[in-house]
Amino acid sequence: MGKRLYVGNLSFSITEADLREAFKAEGHDVSEVKLVTDRETGRPRGFAFVEMATDEGAAHAIGSLNGRDLQGRTITVSEARERTGGGVVVAADVAVAAAAAAGAGKRLAAFRLRSYSALSVE
Length: 122
Prior knowledge:
Blueprint lengths: L3 E5 L7 H10 L4 E8 L6 E9 L2 H11 L3 E2 L2 E2 L1 E4 L11 H13 L4 E6 L2 E6 L1
Antiparallel strand pairs: 1-3, 1-6, 2-3, 4-5, 7-8
């Protein structure tokens, strides 16, 4: 199985096809390209994840593409890290919060601001 790479500092006009072509031009075998976009606007957020076919290909891609210019931007290519928990409210937490709020005679309000969700007790 290959490695997933983080590619940062991308031009906001880049497409998945452009990124795939940049990796292929260096002789890398790419399995998948995922350009991260804003949930609300659909516009690129300036970074992507590229799945390489092999671990060796991933190491070579990091060495050959990190710090290179792509569409006028110096890109960063590194091994992707797993997400860590931070600020994510799961359904079970919401249920507990709602029950606690109801028990206190208060109302639980959920709202969304841009791409962040929040809870408040009123």
